[in-house]
Design a protein that fits this description.
three-stranded antiparallel beta sheet; binds 2-amino-4-trifluoromethylsulfanyl-butyric acid; globular; binds cobalt (II) ion; 257 residues; alpha+beta; 15 strands; four-stranded antiparallel beta sheet
């Protein structure tokens, strides 16, 4: 590659790979009996020992290394002494920084046997993200991404969270543009080669409204319905895209456990 963003892409690939390897590593630990705090600690150590550090730690006063969002938690769940139980669904969201660049990715995990309803929600969330990724190339608009996700998800009777979105990412954690997971075709900013951002749809089994808990971070579904999320960090190339946070062990696809 010889262009003005090849160096940025190389660094984003390194950070993205560490974030996805962290999720690969933690997969076997996500079982009934482990606390979300233990998951946080294991990932903290793994990221540190592999040449990176965790972006969430001390980010805007956040005190953990990653987010663990359980069941009706939409996003930004804080690791705690909560023990995982059979039937829980959990999103683990890891952001690693290596050499100043960020890799941000999250996946769903099922604890033991999960309900068919939960599985369908998780599959739909994953597919909505991948469908949106597959259309990426220079010239399409941000609204096309949102449309792809929203139409697929709503057709199945689920809803797209409005209060949180994907984001530009590179040597800063969150930067413009916002990547909305709902929208209209051919509307919004045009994608250009060299752009790097996340797609991270949060999909609710019930209504899309969210509520922020008193801890100032944890976002839950207002109607207490289940919520699910996947996230990849990617870059726009001359004629398509590159995913920086693909699983090395091929455990990106649901279900993992
Ligand atoms: N990883 C989240 C994202 O996808 C952000 C978490 S910020 C934190 O953008 F402070 F809550 F960790
Ligand atoms: Co993100
Ligand atoms: Co994230």
């Amino acid at each position: 590659m010889t262009n003005n963003y090849s160096e940025k892409f190389e660094k984003m690939k390194v950070a993205g790979k560490l974030a996805s390897q962290t999720l690969d590593m933690i997969t076997n630990y996500v079982k009934a009996g482990i606390s979300t705090e233990k998951i946080d600690k294991l990932c903290y150590v793994y990221i540190r020992d592999n040449g990176g550090h965790s972006a969430p730690l001390y980010y805007r006063g956040y005190k953990k290394s990653l987010c663990t969002s359980l069941n009706h938690v939409i996003c930004h769940g804080i690791p705690s002494d909560r023990i995982l139980e059979e039937g829980d669904i959990l999103n683990i969201d890891v952001t690693a920084i290596v050499d100043g660049y960020h890799g941000d990715t999250s996946r769903m995990f099922g604890v033991g046997k999960i309900s068919v309803k939960a599985k369908n929600l998780i599959d739909t969330t994953f597919n909505s993200m991948m469908n949106a990724i597959k259309i990426l190339k220079p010239g399409i608009k941000l609204g096309d991404i949102g449309y792809e996700i929203q139409s697929y998800v709503e057709d199945k009777g689920y809803s797209v969270v409005r209060d949180f979105c994907g984001h530009g990412i590179s040597n800063t954690f969150h930067e413009p543009p916002n990547i909305l997971h709902y929208g209209k075709k051919n509307v919004g900013q045009e994608l250009k080669p060299g752009m790097t951002f996340t797609i991270e749809p949060m999909i609710n089994a019930g209504k899309y409204e969210s509520k922020l808990l008193n801890d100032g971070w944890t976002a839950v579904t207002k109607d207490k319905s289940l919520s699910s999320q996947y996230e990849h960090t990617l870059g726009i190339t001359e004629n398509g895209y590159e995913i920086f946070t693909e699983s090395v062990k091929d455990c990106t696809k649901p279900p993992y456990n």
